[in-house]
Amino acid sequence: MAGIEPVPMIARTACLLFLAFASCGGTQATEVTSPPRASEPAPVAASTAPKSEPAPATTMPASRPDSSPSYNKLTPAEAQVILQKGTERAFTGEYTENEAEGTYICRQCNAVLYRSEDKFHSGCGWPSFDDEVAGAVERHSDHSHGMERVEITCKNCGGHLGHVFTGERMTDMNTRHCVNSVSLRFVKAGDPLPAPIVKKPAK
Ligand SMILES: [Zn+2]
After folding, report:
1. Whole-prediction pTM value?
2. 28/202 Cα distance (integer angstroms)
3. How far is CA 16 from its chain centroid?
4. Residue ranges of domains in the chain
5. pLDDT, tens digit, for every residue of 153-185?
6. Are 93 and 127 contacting, i.e. CB atoms less than 8 angstroms apart?
7. Whole-angstrom Cα distance, residue 196 to residue 71?
8. Residue 100 contacts by C-beta under 8 Å, 6 or more apart in sequence?
9. Which helix (H) or strand (E) holds 138?
10. Ligand 1 centroid from CA 6, angstroms
11. How many other C-beta atoms are found inside a 10 Å radius of the C-beta of residue 109?
12. Phi/psi at 151 (nearest 5 deg)?
């Protein structure tokens, strides 16, 4: 669905915002500035200076020390939810009513998170699933906003997904993953799944 298109200003802004957020993570590689000037012999005299090949310009290292792949770029709205743990407004997400068969992957890293067989209509205003793909989702105690909730995040990239609730008896699984649509990307059945973007663990 997201084809190659000219990069409008908003996308550039999103990119900059993403970089700004990413820079908060403290895992970014140290920026490489101009390398220290190599000590070079001073020319004896200007007239006798050899007119050899141009001095080697700033040389890039052959292989960068940290070549972890980058996650998918996020729009400001996506970053607000995925990185800042925000919540999209109820009944506004593009997948809340989606009933098509397919797979829901992480918008930030493409990890497979949920399958359409486990999606159900809860009426809560967000996509609801009563099960996750095994091992794809992590749970964290969330005491924010004066509530006791269990936050769910993508196991691969740590992106915020939403919250999980149990004991509501909405389905036999008795579990409701309440997930923001902007944290997900839907891949309909039969379409190829993009490869997950896996970063190297920080040393
Ligand atoms: Zn992810």
Report:
1. 0.68
2. 10
3. 14
4. 89-188
5. 999 999 999 999 999 999 999 999 999 999 999
6. yes
7. 9
8. 116, 186, 188, 189
9. strand 137-142
10. 26
11. 23
12. -75, 145
> What are the distances in angstroms from CA 99 to CA 121, 168, 172, 174?
9, 22, 19, 20
In total, the chain counts a number of residues equal to 203
Distance 125 CA to ligand 1 centre (A): 22
For residues 128 and 134, give the distance between their C-alpha atoms in angstroms, rounded to a whole number: 16
* Ramachandran angles phi, psi of 153, nearest 5°: -130, 160
Q: Annotated catalytic sites, by residue?
A: 178
Quote the ligand 1 centre to 181 CA distance (angstroms).
13
| Token pair of 39 as six digits | 């000590």
Span from the CA of 196 to the centroid of ligand 1 (angstroms): 8
CA of 43 to the centre of ligand 1 (A): 56
Task: Specify the amino acid at residue 32.
Answer: V
Lowest mean pLDDT among 10-19, 34-43, 47-56, 82-91: 10-19
CATH number of 89-188: 2.170.150.20
